[in-house]
Amino acid sequence: MDTLARVTDLSRRFGARRALCCLDFELRRGEVLGLLGPNGAGKTTCLRLLSGTLAPSGGRVEILDIDLARHPVAAKRHLGYLPERPPLYPELRVDEYLGHCARLHRVPRVDFADAVDRAKQRCGLDAVGRTLIAKLSKGFRQRLGIAQAILHRPKLLILDEPTEGLDPVQIREVRGLIRDLSRDCGIILSSHILSEVQAVCDRVLVLHQGRMLRSDRFGVLGPTALWRVRLRPRGDSGACSGAERLERLACVEAAVVLGEDRFRVILTEGAESADLSRQILGAGLDLCELGPERPDLERVFFDLIGAGGTA
Ligand SMILES: Nc1ncnc2c1ncn2[C@@H]1O[C@H](COP(=O)(O)OP(=O)(O)OP(=O)(O)O)[C@@H](O)[C@H]1O
């Protein structure tokens, strides 16, 4: 089975506030999928719904084809979850804590020791088994949070802001750990740091104000997907802007205004610059310039959330 998680029309309200609306996506085996968005975008809400720690207001989550709402115990068996603030007990030693988590994950008693040893080894915690959690650095606490999530060898690992608050060395180590773990399971992680998702994710979903802005292609924009276009100014454009005219073209997925008569254009999958120039001319627009744009995740991200970026 290649689809580890399937999310269909997922929504969540908190009173009158809509935290998440109409989310649809899939996570496939072997993928690291990033949920990217500014503070309050709905990332944590989405991951809590995926992990079954929060119930949706609408829609469905399936883990390996098991409906999470209908069969939570069976579905959660395949899930490991690192919450935004992992529930660590500072008064416990690392081994004690992991043993406790192994019980919660229903690891068979005879496998406890092996499960704890394996998780420690994967997360670089071998040397600190007897250490009190209160004495661990932030980086080691984060590793411990990840270790508790992989104790039962889940097929899907959910990590909420896994490198938040870490120093650059710790960030690099945790990113390495995530890439390493992705050999065994699919991973979905959240971040508001653009370089973070670029560094570790195969695919990126952008959330803004509870909605998904773009789907899969955002993270894999190829060198031919982004083009810079300059049109000759027209006196007869009426209410319709240049960007709107460009977005009407079949080969254009989105057009962003860069300046007067200058646009950044994202092509639909499979479309080429030849299609773009042909369709621009066919629509009666006057094409002055057409050139490739570097697929810069940060710039596209700010364009999409409308926060303004550098052109
Ligand atoms: N328990 C709650 N009760 C009321 N509102 C909530 C609750 N949890 C989240 N929200 C609201 O839902 C929206 C999305 O919050 P969420 O924590 O999912 O965003 P986020 O993208 O994870 O943000 P951050 O990066 O700051 O953690 C926000 O407006 C938040 O205030």
Automatic annotation (TrEMBL):
Domain ABC transporter: 5-234
Entry superkingdom: Bacteria
CDD domains: ABC_DR_subfamily_A
Record key words, sorted: ATP-binding, Hydrolase, Nucleotide-binding, Transport
Keyword Transport: yes
Enzyme Commission (EC) number: 3.6.3.17
Sample GO molecular function, one term: ATP binding
Family under the similarity heading: Belongs to the ABC transporter superfamily.
Name of this protein: Monosaccharide-transporting ATPase
Organism: Thiocapsa marina 5811
